[in-house]
Amino acid sequence: MGLIIGLLTAVIAAATTVVKTLAVAGLAIQGLREIGNSLMNLGKSLGLIKPETQIEELGDRALQAEADGIEPGQFSSYMDYLKKVEEYELDAERTLNFSEEEKLKKGMELAAGVMVEEYKEFPMEEFCIAVGQNPEYFTSGKLQEMGRLIEKNAGYIPEILHYVDGTEKDEQKLDSVITTLTEIEKNTNPELSDTDALQAVLGVRKL
């Protein structure tokens, strides 16, 4: 039991860190929504979040549930908590008690939490941050493609992450991930030339 509580506490802390890192002071609501949608799309592509779930509505449900005493620490897993929140019946009047920003941040927290728990042996917290910091690159279509790869081999999480954040220096690994990302670029944007697809991939990497 102690191990479960410890793991859940770590997941909650990681999810909170993702939101604090991405939801910087002064960020406009539209920017926050774009980041939140990126996280939601990743969670959906991995089969962890229902396809019809919307970021703000999920956050609203979680905030109302929290006001009723429903919190992640009461469950044996974060996924169980997410399922409870997804089933929570919204009260239209109580929705007015929370700001748009609060709902978006809470929705981001749940999306990050369930992914961090599912892929706890991999740097999913950092991957979520990378996705959120590059919403113009990590489109819904690309995340669907990446989700399929990650479901088959979670090793793609660190490979893509360390390419994007600029920490991977091994030329063979770089060539491999560039090839993979370029294929994803072409699959989601078939009108692009091979050169433009490659440039898009090269442009997302931090130097």
Give an account of the 3D structure.
The chain has 207 residues and is an all-alpha fold. The protein has 2 domains: 1-122, no CATH class; 134-207, no CATH class. The protein contains 11 helices and no strands. It has helices spanning 2-22, 29-45, 55-67, 78-87, 92-95, 100-118, 124-133, 140-152, 156-164, 171-188, 194-204. The longest helix is centred in the first third of the chain and has 21 residues, at 2-22.
Head-to-tail CA distance between termini:
44 Å
Order of helices and strands: HHHHHHHHHHH
The gyration radius over C-alpha positions equals 18 Å
Largest sheet at a glance?
Answer: none
- Count of separate DSSP helical elements: 11
Q: How many runs of DSSP E, i.e. beta strands?
A: 0
Global mean pLDDT? 94
Strand content: under 5%
Please bin the fraction of helical residues.
over 70%
Total tally of structural domains: 2
Name the shape in a single word. Answer: globular
In the predicted model, the low-confidence regions spanning at least 5 consecutive residues are none
Structural class, from helix and strand content? mainly alpha
